[in-house]
Amino acid sequence: MAENETGNESAPRWLSEPEQQAWYAWRRMFPLVNADIARDLTQDSGLSEADYDVLSVLGSTDGHRMRISALAVLMQWSRSRLSHQLTRMEQRGIVRREEVADDGRGAEVVLTEQGVTTIMTAAPLHVESVRRHLIDILTPEQLRTFAEVGELLRTRLGVERKTR
Amino acid sequence: MAENETGNESAPRWLSEPEQQAWYAWRRMFPLVNADIARDLTQDSGLSEADYDVLSVLGSTDGHRMRISALAVLMQWSRSRLSHQLTRMEQRGIVRREEVADDGRGAEVVLTEQGVTTIMTAAPLHVESVRRHLIDILTPEQLRTFAEVGELLRTRLGVERKTR
Q1: Do B127 and A154 touch (CB under 8 A)?
Q2: Where are the domains of chain A?
Q3: Residue from the list B19, B59, B149 with its beta carbon closest to the beta carbon of A29
Q4: A43-122 belongs to which CATH class?
Q5: Is the Cα torsion angle B105, B109, B110, B116 positive or negative in sign?
Q6: What is the ipTM of this complex?
């Protein structure tokens, strides 16, 4: 909405042309690219992005296992969302929950043999998809900017959350 | 899947360290920033992001009105998703649908007076939120890279969709 339409005496700091272009790009590019990558994941491996995230985190740990509480923190998911997700994955036989001798840190989730096969088969196809829809399209400098901005926003958010 | 679609299966092209940093940043920063901006929008103005998008598009048109079919294309939403959204907004009195003399292009959606007031009140608060959580944090060069990459991905997607 144009400045002269608002009549706001506090003079809102409307976005400049380059700022607006960056904001529109931000809003549009993520859903578009993520939809393409999610579609590939389903077609190639029958997995959702949530399935893939859980499998790949577990696949990268020693013993293919992790405390459910730690996994929730790492993925920035609520315990309840993760619990529903793990139940669905358990029903498909790709993970299982394991009670741990009670040290107060709660149950673990473990990749089953089928889960290991699933992530090992899916990973090379997924990385190709990520390259095709994003990584291989960008210049090394553009990639560096994304990493920088990601780090900047993450740090800033951490600081904001702590001071709230 | 044909071999030319998967690449060389014996040697997956795993992401390099800088590529992986860019990919993780991409995955994480968008949900984090958008959650903050969406939370502000609800607290400041009682609007969802979808509400805001519809109101701000209509607010920027002549006569604060648009064909529903054109709005769906512009927002890249399905007709059905947009229709449900407009019904909810109509119930709150901020937009109304209007039948148009039948020229085969379908109904229009129009901002009500209350809708105009709503977007005029919300816009200055929203732009402050967008600045605080994203735009003011980035350097002009980082903003330029986002705009460039957004344009690149959008163009590429357009080409892909046409050749599919």
Answers
A1: no
A2: 43-122, 134-164
A3: B149
A4: mainly alpha
A5: negative
A6: 0.82
